[in-house]
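User: Good morning. I'm curious how zinc ion would be positioned relative to this chain. Could you predict the structure with it bound?
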Amino acid sequence: MSEQVRKTDHGVINTPAFLATATKGTIKTLTPQQVKEIGIQGACVNTYHLVTHPGADVIEKAGGIQKYSRLNIFTMSDSGGFQVFSLARNGPPRGPLAIPQKQLSSLSKTYQKKADVRGEEEPFVIKISEDGVKFRSIFDGTIIEFTPEKSMEFQKKIGADINIAFDECTYYPATHGYAEKAMKRTHEWLKRCINYNKSEIRNPKFETNSKRFENSNLKNSKIVSSFDIRASNLNRYLYGVIQGGTFEDLRKKSAEFVVSQDTPGVAIGGVSVGESKKEMRDQVRWVSDYLPSDRPVHLLGVGQIDDIIDLVKYGVDTFDCVEPTRLARMGTIYQIGKARYGAQVSSFSVQIEITKSLYKNNFEKVDVDCECYVCQNFTKSYLHHLFKQREILSYTLATFHNLWVMEKLFEGIRKAIGKDLI
Ligand SMILES: [Zn+2]
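Assistant: Good morning! Here's the predicted structure, ligand included:
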């Protein structure tokens, strides 16, 4: 690829940054043009979902996920590990991502029958071994195998800018013994991922700018304030994943190991899997002193508004979270006045449920403090009406606004860091 082509407008990522969820190669309900207008810098696609449909080969044939989806922003693909393990333990996904119940129960019955014949206990059961994970697709029942090498191969074909090493996401609550076993397996798998990519994405680093938090009382108070993904001729970069469950000794051990590996970035995984908020924050705080200051750090699957500032202080540079977009589709509307960075950190999580009848006659902007397209044009009453009538536009408007609020929040944090206010 020529240098000119590589110099797209998503080359430099200003951090802290929020990556929107684009599970199946789309930020649900938004066109790439709308995403661009919001200013979101990146998106997180899901290897497991894209492998089940349309298949990694199809995306490769199309020239990679950027070309296929026209997202045209920085992209990260997760390893598929989280979905593989959560599916195995909790069954198929629920909520807006769920397969329609009717379709699911007929699938379940079909594969339950086949599973019964084979003497298996349930249809989605997986086998976890040192080599990898085998499981049955909830979509068509085919057996899919994820090993570190397979995950890398899938991610290579998908072609996102950042690839995440295959890891075992420990369930919650797990025993110390199991969390340790899963952590060791994750470390072994990271070595295999690095080995797979040896010639391609092991050594190159991003060009990064770091900044020190002078006002922070944390020992490690440095963060990466931006990184440039055009720093080399490579297309993809690999991040290792810190695991260790809710155990301080394991988290620290894992951080030490993962950071010592020569990967361009580091991710923290296995958090926000059912534990309390305090436990979630502790898991990041414990590893804070081990995180690199010359490489970006990504926190997998966390991005609730009221957590972000603390997590940034612990050294997290990029976040991805399904919450702003998923909540939007359920009618939960963020309120920017409360979300913008300021002194009132405790009031960050304010949001409204637009489906409540009190909004039927409310002709105020969707959010009085917001300058987004939605709030410039539509009232709470109208959005309430669209949701009550299940009009498709309701999802688009709510998603557009919630992501706008997230981006404004991060913009505010970046500015505050620039002025040494954090
Ligand atoms: Zn708005």
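The chain has 18 helices and 16 strands. The radius of gyration is 21 Å.
Let me know if you'd like a different ligand tried.
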